[in-house]
């Protein structure tokens, strides 16, 4: 032997025959087709099975066209404070309101499936409560109140706030929790907590009133019925003693707008806007049951501010006397007097005054709000950048709140110092 290991015989590799190649191809194709069919069946099962397992699941949603529903509500509650980068973005605070001073806003938001365009009409709307730190209108939290068909819950509104609960009407009673660690209970949850109160009966809205708390079935004299505890959302008889006193109640303003009008009263005083070419030369009787003295449809053109005195004439209604133009006020091309109820002017005190706004189509005229003494003297005038309309207004000691609409799809909230007209803060809120 030469010392080399014998090499095993190797089988010579031959190319497959045509029949063998065709058989292998058919077998591989069956495997691929079978795999694709299996994956398709799995996906079909998921499409059918997930909605069956989770019937309340919704496709991913897109939220557009947020609109504020007046009135806004000022309250005190424990709010989430911004931290980290959010605190840096917040900027310097005005500092005259502490961080329990809250501003609550109810919004209506269009909902669409994520794959639909904005041109597709929305099928649903979300009602949502947003809480702001009132000091600088910084958003603290947003909570969903209800999802309704488009245009549903037309009388949705904020009712009141107490403790860390905001009571909302949205075709049902909802206890929203926009405060720190807040919890929201819809009407179904309130029924579960209060099974004996018949909250599911028709006409619930007419059974609600405000006193020391949100009251159910209270009498006109303020007695009887049940008062809701804002912490537990459980209502108990008002005659029963409570272990702890209820926190202060903050009702929402009853008036929801519009905030601009052509006329209104302050006590026995009257102010109105008349076309510049028209004058009041004699006493005028009220034109309707609401006590308006001007025709309901104004004539086009600039409007001049007038003032007068109202005398109640017994059975014949009110009479406007001694009307005269207010000196020093130029005619307004567009705008109106700011009111806080139909026929009643928003009249801040110290000193007694009224508010006049010039607003109109974007770019057509300068926009401003002016505070006037009752004798017509101007206290201050402040420019409102691009405010086409004032949707809501309210005043509190030291501060005027204006919800302005710069264009159809956005709204800006202004906090204005009543003393000098300085804009303390303005932020887009929709």
Describe this entry's structure for a reader:
This protein is mainly beta. The chain folds into 2 domains: 61-251, no CATH class; 260-428, Thrombin, subunit H. It is 12% helix and 40% strand. It has 4 helices and 27 strands. It has helices spanning 18-53, 85-90, 187-193, 204-207; strands at residues 61-76, 101-113, 124-133, 138-149, 157-162, 165-169, 173-176, 208-210, 214-216, 226-228, 235-237, 249-251, 260-261, 263-266, 269-275, 284-285, 303-312, 318-325, 336-341, 344-345, 353-358, 368-373, 378-383, 389-396, 399-407, 410-417, 423-428. The strands form 6 sheets. Strands 13, 19, 20, 21, 22 and 23 form a 6-stranded antiparallel beta sheet that branches. A hairpin with a 2-residue loop joins strand 5 (157-162) and strand 6 (165-169). It is globular, with a radius of gyration of 33 Å.
**Overall pLDDT level:** 85
Report the sheet with the most strands, covering strand number, pairing sense and barrel closure.
Answer: 6 strands, antiparallel
The span between the termini is 98 Å
The domain count comes to 2
- The number of E-state strands comes to 27
Helix content: 10-25%
Shape: globular
Strand content: 35-45%
Number of helices: 4
Structural class per helix/strand content?
A: mainly beta
Cα-based radius of gyration, to the nearest Å: 33 Å
- Poorly predicted sequence stretches spanning 5 or more consecutive residues: none
List keywords for this structure.
single chain, 430 residues, mainly beta, Thrombin, subunit H, 2 domains, 6-stranded antiparallel sheet, 5-stranded antiparallel sheet, 4 helices, 27 strands, 12% helix, globular
